[in-house]
């Protein structure tokens, strides 16, 4: 049985045809092919009762590709400071992937959000990938990467395991067409007048090329990475390159945190 939307679309099209053939529209005639095309387009307006009640919020299954290998991040979760967990959806599909929060199954990397230290992000993997060996002296625990143009995040190297089960982003850089992210086990809490991150820039192209996080901002503050680097009048330089310094700033509480 045709839906209301489909019926209305059909009535509108037939009215247009009558109006046109009467010589009142811009085109005096319509070919059979034109009519077929318009009727076919009318199906785009068809909405089932189920879709009206519960619109889809996740990508269609046909849009999610099979994971290339077990080092691909297959699913992403986020947890707010009150413990509320949000499913951010699948990145790819594999048999061993889970969408349940678990910090100690060696199939996940749980890290403090680089802007908001009181948010946790969990990357899920298809198979156990985190080593048994515990990290020492704040060494780089894991390196992940993705292409610059396409989000295809995956583990490049898992070196050791943080005893707490929680990791911090120490920074990321653009290298050979890829973003490469490094994770460590600890970052100190920033003082309010302290630089939280160095934002590396290509001054000629006026684009960001990387970040280095020196500390994590305290509660109620964030280390903003959406820094506008166009038309910079001042910057600094170190052995890595040109950069601008950024400090923690107070943020507005997100609604999702109060759920």
Structure description:
With 259 residues, this protein is α+β, with helices and mostly antiparallel strands. It is 13% helix and 30% strand. It contains 3 helices and 14 strands. Strands 1, 2, 3, 4, 5, 6, 7, 8, 9, 10, 12 and 13 form a 12-stranded mixed beta sheet that branches. Strands 11-14 form a two-stranded antiparallel sheet. Helix 1 runs antiparallel to helix 2. The longest helix is centred in the first third of the chain and has 18 residues, at 4-21. The radius of gyration is 26 Å and the shape is globular. The two termini are 40 Å apart. Residues 1-62 and 255-259 have low confidence and may be disordered.
Order of helices and strands: HHHEEEEEEEEEEEEEE
* Portion in helices: 10-25%
Structural class: alpha+beta
Radius of gyration: 26 Å
Low-confidence stretches: 1-62, 255-259
Mean of pLDDT: 78
What is the CA–CA distance across the termini? 40 Å
How many strand elements? 14
Strand content: 25-35%
Q: Name the shape in a single word.
A: globular
Question: Number of helix segments?
Answer: 3
**Main pleated sheet:** 12 strands, mixed
């Amino acid at each position: 049985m045709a839906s209301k939307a489909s019926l209305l679309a059909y009535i509108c099209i037939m009215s247009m045809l009558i109006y046109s053939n009467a010589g009142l529209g811009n085109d005096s005639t319509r070919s059979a092919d034109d009519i077929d095309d318009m009727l076919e387009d009318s199906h785009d307006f068809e909405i089932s009762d189920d879709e009206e009640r519960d619109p889809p919020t996740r990508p269609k299954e046909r849009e999610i590709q099979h994971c290339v290998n077990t080092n691909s991040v297959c699913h992403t979760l986020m947890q707010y400071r009150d413990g509320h967990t949000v499913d951010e959806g699948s990145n790819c599909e594999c048999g061993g992937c889970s969408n349940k929060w678990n910090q100690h199954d060696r199939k996940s990397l749980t890290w403090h959000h680089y802007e908001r230290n009181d948010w946790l992000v969990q990357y899920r993997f298809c198979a156990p990938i985190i080593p048994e060996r515990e990290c020492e002296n704040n060494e780089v625990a894991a390196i992940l990467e993705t292409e610059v143009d396409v989000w295809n995040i995956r583990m490049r190297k898992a070196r050791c395991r943080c005893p707490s089960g929680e990791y911090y982003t120490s920074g990321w850089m653009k290298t050979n067409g890829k973003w490469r992210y490094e994770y460590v086990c600890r970052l100190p809490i920033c003082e309010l007048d302290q630089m939280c991150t160095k934002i590396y820039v290509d001054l000629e192209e006026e684009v960001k090329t990387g970040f280095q996080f020196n500390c994590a901002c305290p509660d109620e503050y964030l280390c903003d990475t959406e820094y506008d680097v166009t038309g910079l009048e001042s910057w600094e330089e170190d052995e890595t390159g040109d950069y601008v310094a950024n400090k923690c700033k107070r943020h507005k509480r997100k609604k999702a945190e109060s759920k």
